[in-house]
Amino acid sequence: MPASVIIADDQELVRDGIKYLVEIEAGLEVIHEVSNGNVLAKVLEQKKPDLLILDLALPELGGVKSMDELSEKFPKVKILILTMLDSEDQVMGALEYGAAGYVLKGSSKSEILKAIQAILNGKKYFSGDISGILISNYLRKKTAPSQEKEEEPGQLAFLTKREKETLNMILKGKGNNEIGEALKISRRTAETHRFNLMKKLQVSNLAELTQKAGELDLI
């Protein structure tokens, strides 16, 4: 059964082009199209796609900050940002809030297809221009004077806000029920955040997580 995809873009011509790529070139199934951000959460709840292809400029979406809510409510939905917005704040914000990939609309057809396949295979994907922004951001932080130890690239860099909050509470000895109550999320969502952050930090139990946190100067 092919992976299911929802396309969220306000331009019909763009949606048609993406749909062609997704269905004809990639062999996936577009199960819904969204042209306005105020119905996106409802559609995701009803359709439960494997992948959301999202333009951050979607009307009524609320910009990059909406990613936090989407990632929290739908942790199993992988999100590929396909947009014209290329400011560093937009890019870093989208990654902070859980986007699995970020590709500019000017990218080639083959690159968009690579992004889709990579994300569905559990990987991250960034187009060339976006990779340049990530590198510049990392180098600037690395050379900036700071008393704090830098986060290791590839580990803390892609923890979402909720995952970082969950990590902090785990290190304080809190269980999933307590984490859920404190963050006002369900126990199941707390479990998902715990699983995701342990996977990203490449640890398999609490002892390893505590050790890794110590290595990264988080304790």
TrEMBL record:
It holds the Pfam family Response_reg. Residues 4-120 form the Response regulatory domain. The modification 4-aspartylphosphate is found at D55. Residues 152-217 form the HTH luxR-type domain. GO terms for molecular function: DNA binding. InterPro entries: CheY-like_superfamily (IPR011006), NreC/VraR/RcsB-like_REC (IPR058245), Sig_transdc_resp-reg_C-effctor (IPR016032), Sig_transdc_resp-reg_receiver (IPR001789), Tscrpt_reg_LuxR_C (IPR000792), WalR-like (IPR039420). GO terms for biological process: phosphorelay signal transduction system; regulation of DNA-templated transcription. Keywords: DNA-binding, Phosphoprotein, Transcription, Transcription regulation. This is DNA-binding NarL/FixJ family response regulator. It comes from Algoriphagus iocasae.
